[in-house]
Amino acid sequence: MIQLFHVFKSYDGENMVLKDINMIVEKGEFVFLTGVSGAGKTTLLKMLFLEEKPSRGQILIHNKNISRLSSNSIPFLRRNIGVVFQDFKLIEYRTVFENIAITLEILDLPRKVINQKVINILKLVGLEHRKNHLPKKLSGGEQQRVAIARALVNDPAILLADEPTGNLDPQITIEIMKLFEKANNNGTTILIATHDSSLMERYKKRVLHIEDGRVF
Amino acid sequence: MYFFRKALNNIVRNFSVNLFTILIISTSLMIFNLFLLTYHNIDIILDKQYQHHIFLYLEPDFDENDISKYELEITKKLPSTAVFVSQKEAFNSFKLSLKNDASLLEGLDESVIPAYFDISLKSTPSNLDSILKELDDLYFVSNIDSGKEVYQKIEKIVTILFSILTYIAVLIMIATFFAIYMTIKLTIYSRKEEIEILELVGATRFFIKMPFHIEGVLQGILGVSLAMFMLYLTHITITDTFVKNLLSPFGITTISFIPLKYTLFNYLFSIIFGFLASMFAVNRFLKI
Fold first, then answer.
1. Positive/negative CA dihedral, B266, B271, B272, B276
2. Closest to B121 in 3D by CA, of B163, B181, B74
3. Average pLDDT of B218-244?
4. For a disulfide at B110, which of A172, B87, B226, B258, Cβ 3.0-4.6 Å?
5. What domain range includes position B35?
6. What's the gap in Å between the CA of B199 and the closest CA on chain A?
7. B12 shares contact with chain A (CB less than 8 Å)
8. Does the reported pTM lie above 0.95?
9. How much is the ipTM here?
């Protein structure tokens, strides 16, 4: 599903943020990517949905070398990857419903289908009553759940989450992890970047550790 | 429909900027169309009053029994209808046209005004000048007023008006282009965050750009619609007051609104410029 071969990444051409990364995540797997802040977890995730391109090496998703994708093909790759961003990336002036619907609107789905799917996912994340609110009216945990709903509403093959439980209280963390497990049970491959060791202790999943730009 | 809704949302969200742009476009087009309206109406008047209308004055000693013969000779040379106006009729008509100043004619009788033929051309022959010369040489003709001098003077005004129209058209193109260009630029900046998110969730370039193009086109359409509405109101006001009080003595009883083809041209122009300006702004400021 996700394969990285000898991947290097440098932002300035000199200092390597990621060095010779080799890793494989199988289809339907649930993997934690861990490491201290600044270890390169976010950079690695960004390369998987091509927000950043690798300086060297090959990244294969569904056996397709995404490093070679033309800029016109990138949107179609991204439609199969749900991303939960560390800073949520919610549009401030759009309602919760509209923020989630964006993912479906770009697919040109009928309005009826969009409405149904958004309502279903809002029920799943427990925010149906908040659908007409603007993100700034929500708590941090609720915003996080909106970001997760947006990432999952399209039933993506892969879900990438960058510190999805950072700064959340334990109860909300459990709720959010339940959502990920549910998606994983439905066949979505999940890769979560986190430095929260308690998560890895609680949920017995494969852990990839990044240290000094290398994966162990 | 989605793109149209997004474009409308953009306009509503940046309402003051969009309103300003629409006002710039409509004011520019309003000025242009006022000149166009004037040009169009002068053209009609020239066509009606002068090009197709000739007064053929008779010698004082003409024979009233030969009127039909004269008429036949005139219409044989010119494809027209010639209506005889006697001295008495001409005098009364002139007196009427003077309205309150009719007293100026006191003490004068109909002999001061010659009898004439009011000739309406069915079409304007290419050798009109030589035909008029032939008519002038006829024994019963005193002189001919084809309105040529007045026509030429007005034609000069029309030429000047046309030049002004051309300059205004160029200025409007520039104003419309930059007004829309700047608005789209501001909209792109205000939606920067949304555009980034759209990209990250898999929106294509077409999907992201299209609402901006529609926004540019909508601004053009709204601008031209407002201009046409204001022009129509101005036209009604002018017809009601200006024409009735000032122009009716000259035989001008109405002012035509600009023809449909010019209105359609206005819309076409605004749509094309709205699209072009948004295209330039999107290509310049939307880095995706």
1. positive
2. B74
3. 87
4. B87
5. 2-48+151-285
6. 7
7. no
8. no
9. 0.89
Structure tokens at A5: 């071969």
Range of the domain at A30: 1-80+157-216
Q: Is some CB atom of chain A closer than 8 A to the CB atom of B5?
A: no
Beta-carbon-side half-sphere exposure of residue B252 (alpha carbons within 13 Å) = 21
Is B274 in the same domain as B167? yes
Please give the Cα distance from B76 to A125 (Å, whole number): 95
Beta bridge partners of A162: A193
**With 70 as the cut, is the pLDDT of residue B222 above it?**
yes
Q: Which residue of B has its CA nearest to A108?
A: B2
Of B266, B264, B256, which Cα lies nearest the Cα of B47?
B256
Q: How far is B272 from chain A (nearest CA, A)?
A: 26
Q: Which of B191 and B99 is assigned the larger pLDDT?
A: B191
Q: Do B205 and A72 touch (CB under 8 A)?
A: yes
Q: Are B2 and A76 in contact (CB < 8 Å)?
A: no
Q: Is B287 on the interface with A (CB under 8 A)?
A: no
Token pair for A11: 């932002």
CB-based contact, B192 to chain A, within 8 Å: no
**Region of poorest pLDDT, from A15-19, B145-149, B279-283:** B145-149
**For position A110, what pLDDT does the model report?**
92
pLDDT band at B227 (very low <50, low <70, confident <90, very high): very high
Q: Which residue of B201, B209, B287 is the best one to mutate when testing the A interface, meaning the one whose CB has the most A CBs within 10 A?
A: B201
Cα separation of A189 and A180, whole Å? 10
